[in-house]
Structure formats: C-alpha cells, structure tokens
Hints:
alpha/beta
Amino acid sequence: MHRERVSENVFWFQSEVYAQVTAGVVAGPQWAVVIDTLALPDETLGMREFIEHELGVPVRYVINTHYHADHAWGNCFFPSATIIAHARCRDLLAERGAPSLDNARRQNPVLRQVKIVLPHITFDSGEMTMRVGKKNLNILPAMGHSHDGIGVLVEEDRILFAGDAFMPLPYVVDGDVDEIIASIKRIGRMGLENIVQGHGDIILRGEIDAAVKENLNYLSAIKKAARLAARRRVPEELLDTIRIEDCGKSRVYLGGLAEGLHQQNLRALVNQMRASNDK
Length: 279
Ligand SMILES: [Zn+2]
C-alpha cells in the first residue's frame, strides 16, 4: 500500500492490489477520522496500524463515501469507531452488502475476516460538519457514481476526498450520468488545492481544470455514443466499436481495468436510455 502526507495531519493511502482504490485520514490531537476503508483486510489493517502507532491516536470516526465494497467493507476493522455515511449508503449496505459479501468470500477466502458494519450516523440532505483538531471537515453530497455518494472537504486545506464521484475514468453503472456530470462541475468550481479521487492518484491544483474537462468530455462522448446505439436493433454491434480512446481516455487508467469499465458504462447508458424511453 502506498502512503503519502497530503498536508499537516492529512494522509492518503492507495491500494497496490485493487484498482488503485484510495482512503484517507485526518488526525487530531486525541483521535482520527478515516475516510473509506480500502478493499482487502491487510491494507485496511496496515492503515489502522499507521494511524494508531505512527500518528499515535485511535480512530474515532470512519466516513464511508459510498457503500461499495472497496470503500465500506473495512468498517469492521475499526470496532470502536462510529461510522458516518449518507442514509442511502446504510440502506444499500444493509440490502446488498451481505449477499455480495457471501459471494465474494467464495472467490477470495481472505474476506472471511470481513463483516458488514452499517453506518451509525447518517444524513440524507444538506451537509454535515465535523471538527478534528484545527480542521473543519465538511461532509457533502457527491452523487452520480452511486446514489449515496458523499465527499469530505478539509476546509482549511481545500482538499476534497471526492469518493468515486471523481475518478480517472468516471464510472456510472450503479449511478446516474447527469448526476455525476453535475458533481464534477461542482467540484471544478470549489477552488481546491487537491482532489483525492476514489481511485487513482491525487489531482493537484494546476491539474484540476484539465481533469474536470477531460471527465466531462468523456461523459458527453459516451452519452452521445449510447444515444446512437440505443436506436439500433443490436446496440452492442456499435458499442463494441467505440473504444475508450475515441472518448478521450486511455485504457491504461486504473491498472488496465479502464477499457472494461468503459464498455460497462456504454451498456449501462443504453439500458438507462431505453428504460426511460419506455416510460
Ligand atoms: Zn464505487
């Protein structure tokens, strides 16, 4: 697992085994807040070890940016922490977490240590603020990758932990393309120093405008392609020809997963468009 200091008392972790998924910590003098929990127990425990022994504080709160396994299944490794999330994150984890964990355990025995822990504190509208040492954390909605997305802004440092609302390749299969477009535009206007993406590397201030533009261009390209494909009798024939590069992205993103995710995006959009035409 890769670890870096982002600013004073703010650290960032990136998985070296699963899709470059990220997590963060903001530490105060008495306790720390963890933002997301990584994908595999060893990495989550490595992050906890660093916080407890290097930073020397316990984890009092864990914020889940959304309910997906690689962000929320590590909650159980912080047994004395209070978990905070969007209200829909709690619902989705309750509904989908257990069956998909059963499934995942069959493929990966290390997940036997994992237990789904539902968020204790939730909110479903507006924002929430938390004070950690000298820093204000602003917990705000960041929808579109999923329907339960939140981001965490470290106000003093202008660092946004964006969850998967911001990724090297936007992924909308479990969300809504127009909502993620709105989230990305809002993030672009926030005047940030850093965006900590849910996957991939940190985006620095000077790179933000280009990253926002690239993501918005990608999303409008796949919308356009899906609209054309949705009119076809067999949309897949057209979708198969639309490579990720045609939409302004590179297949090397996310450790080579990008082309597969891109094709899933296209198919999901066609289904969403057909479903809304049927209404
Ligand atoms: Zn996700």
